[in-house]
Amino acid sequence: MAIVDITVIPVGTATPSVSGYVAEIHKFLKGYEGKIKYELTPMSTLIEGDLKELLEIVQQLHELPFQKGAQRVCTNIRIDDRRDKENTMERKLKAVENKL
């Protein structure tokens, strides 16, 4: 299982606010409930699941602002793909909390 940290940045929009675009991303992700986990953070969105499926979702998320009229989109992704043991958002948080 992999975790992807994604930030989709529409460029050249009429306003500096991107909350409407972020809301569209989360509406889209609701269609994957039960298949992946996702979490909104103040700076990005985390998605957890099978890497192949997550990469397909990343491509679709990158396209969303174009569908809303954006002419340029920059998308940043980080992938954490650990294969020696279960890799989940929850497990990563608990590992740190246990050390505090």
Automatic annotation (TrEMBL):
Signal peptide boundaries: none
Domain Thiamine-binding protein: 4-97
Source species: Neobacillus mesonae
PANTHER family registered for this protein in UniProt: UPF0045 PROTEIN ECM15
GO CC annotations, alphabetized: cytosol
Protein name as catalogued: Thiamine-binding protein domain-containing protein
Coiled-coil boundaries: none
Top-rank taxon, per record: Bacteria
